[in-house]
Design a protein that fits this description.
- By secondary structure, the chain is of the alpha/beta class.
- It folds into 2 domains: about 325 residues, TIM Barrel; about 45 residues.
- Helices cover about 50% and strands about 10% of the residues.
- It is built from 17 helices and 9 strands.
- The strands form 2 sheets. Strands 1, 2, 3, 4, 5 and 6 form a 6-stranded parallel sheet that branches.
- The longest helix has 26 residues.
- The radius of gyration is 22 Å and the shape is globular.
- The chain starts with a helix and ends with a helix.
């Protein structure tokens, strides 16, 4: 009897160490994608939410509508959380211009709340990292709020507190043009301050004090280094790529990647095709887009109706002259490079969907799992993918909140 028992025990032990039936790479990627907390830190979907005919709870076709994000497609793509950016094109730097930008920011935030609260069974506004994890467990989508362009602040530092109270958790310091905070990476007039303005220095300090995440996407190299000299907490680039992989001023140099990593921050990989891979010449498309931008004053100082009409025309141009998109493989080439230069703890995902973001294989939010599949094909393990898809960003998010709380 004893021998029989020992034989059975030995058989049990041997069976316990037999390899599990092999998964295909597709099955493995799907399992990991479902297991990890996934967050995209930048989309411009609120531009659609200000339209009365856009229902966030309905599934929209990306090809026919040109839109990239809605709640059903988030679920299909296994995306647990999304930062909705209140985007402000840079307008006149006057008292009236700042007042208009400020009002528009509040109006967009109101539209975000209205859209999310209209679908209580599908989504919920989140304000902390803990909120995101808790909402994910209910099967809903967690919606965070950011502001793209510190133009919304005007010259009033108290606006940072007011936006904070409404749930805004990051502010991108500028957009495509210089503003009163800092130099942009793409202003054709060149640098104005060679970094942060004196007011911009105070903005960084106040964001630290409040616990607002500082977003350095769009800002110039010199502005980035000024921010890093002043900030007490980690920063993010909510939607940026590697300049070594695609030579575009919107992307970060290797020196910039290392500097953000040294700060403890994170670079959220953007999938806007022109930032991922240098585009081939397409003069007909470029000319058509230029005509629309000129017609709508480069999207500056527009009414909501004018802005909606302008973006509809931009989408029509894109449909008439389809872009030769970069691919998911190109995206992960950037991730590989960022990991090599900055480390696995300093890279994430920030698509820029509905603001131009899209690549072949990840054309809208329903295809997010294809990024995970490519990561798995390249040998990234579950823990590394967990960091890329949200762990790194949520660490920074927590560090900023805790740092502000300690100093208050």
């Amino acid at each position: 009897m004893k021998i029989l028992f020992l034989s059975s025990l030995l058989m049990f032990i041997l069976c316990s160490f037999q390899p599990v039936k092999n998964e295909t790479l597709v099955q493995k990627a799907a399992r990991i994608h479902n297991a990890v907390f996934t967050i995209d830190t930048h989309c411009d979907t609120p531009m659609n939410l200000t339209r009365s005919d856009y229902n966030l709870a309905e599934r929209h076709d990306a090809k026919s509508t040109g839109t990239k994000v809605d709640l059903p497609r988030m679920k299909e793509g296994g995306l647990d959380a999304q930062f909705f950016a209140a985007f402000l094109s840079q307008g006149a730097r006057t008292e009236v211009g700042h007042a208009n930008a400020n009002k528009k920011a509040f109006d967009i935030i109101k539209a975000i709340y209205k859209s999310v609260e209209a679908s209580p069974n599908l989504a919920q506004i989140a304000r902390t990292p803990e909120d995101g994890y808790a909402i994910e467990k209910t099967g809903k989508r967690a919606i965070y709020i950011g502001i793209e362009n510190g133009y919304a602040i005007g010259h009033d530092l108290t606006m940072i507190e007011k936006f904070w109270q409404l749930g805004v958790r990051y502010i991108t310091l500028c957009h495509t043009l210089n503003n009163d905070i800092c130099d942009s990476s793409t202003d054709k007039k060149g640098p104005e301050y060679n970094g942060l303005s004196p007011f911009g220095v105070e903005v960084v300090k106040e964001m630290n004090r409040k616990g607002m995440i500082i977003d350095v996407s769009h800002i110039s190299d010199s502005s980035l280094y000024d921010v890093l000299k002043i900030t007490r907490f980690p920063i993010i680039a909510s939607h940026s790529c590697s300049r070594a992989m695609c030579d575009n001023p919107r992307n970060l140099t290797d020196e910039g990647l290392r500097a953000v990593a040294k700060n403890g921050g994170v670079i959220q990989m953007c999938i806007l095709s022109d930032y991922v891979k240098t585009p081939d010449p397409y003069p007909a498309r470029d000319s058509a887009r230029a005509v629309v931008r000129a017609k709508y004053n480069n999207f500056e100082n527009l009414t909501p109706e004018q802005e909606s009409a302008g973006w509809d025309e931009i989408r029509a141009v894109s449909k008439k002259f389809p872009q030769n998109l970069a691919t998911v493989k190109d995206v992960v080439d950037h991730i590989d490079h960022i990991v090599k230069v900055a480390g696995i703890d300093h890279v994430g995902i920030g698509t820029d969907f509905d603001g131009g973001g899209a690549v072949s294989g990840c054309f809208d939010v329903s295809e997010m799992g294809n990024i995970t599949l490519e990561l798995v094909k390249r040998g990234y393990d579950e823990e590394q993918i967990r960091k890329i898809w949200g762990g790194n960003f949520m660490r920074v998010f927590s560090a900023v909140l805790k740092g502000a709380k300690k100093q208050s």
